[in-house]
Amino acid sequence: AVGSLTTKTSIDNIEKVGKQTEKKVKKYISNRTYSDRQANFSTDKDIRGMRTFDALKEVDEWIDSALILGVSKLRLLHGKGNGILKMEVRRHLKPNPAILSIEYERVDLGGEGISIIELR
Predict the structure, then answer these.
(1) Any idea what DSSP says for residue 83?
(2) 35-119 topology per CATH
(3) Could you count the other beta carbons within 10 Å of the beta carbon of residue 105?
(4) Which of 92, 81, 91 is nearest to 114 (CA)?
């Protein structure tokens, strides 16, 4: 059984396999230096109009850079619209242990179209 999936077969269809060998994992080495990251970093990020998958990937990379650079407060512009992107981003970020809080911006500065993210 695999999860809730089960199957039946005859004993003739089963064969013993050899010992599995470990695959060597290639290490990813970033070619971005600290100063490159710092020079290209902004505490504001605009993801309006992006597909959710692409937006979440970009937001994760942005937060990673903020953590590396020691930035503690970020401003994420997701827009209001139907609220789907806003909801998905907040749902995605909520369990992140590096995030202290996620609040909406003041009404006069964009309100629910902008999330203020505080990092630990």
Answers:
(1) S
(2) Ribosomal Protein S8; Chain: A, domain 1 (3.30.1370)
(3) 16
(4) 81
Q: How many residues does the chain have?
A: 120
Which residues, listed in sequence order, are joined to residue 77 by a DSSP beta bridge? 46, 114
Residue 88 corresponds to which amino acid? E
CA quadruple 95, 101, 106, 109: dihedral sign = negative
- Strands (DSSP E) contained in 22-71 are 44-46
* Amino acid in the structure at residue 114: I
pTM above 0.70, yes or no: no
Is-contact 51 20, C-beta < 8 A?
A: no
Q: Is residue 73 scored above 60 in pLDDT?
A: yes
What is the 8-class DSSP label of residue 75? E
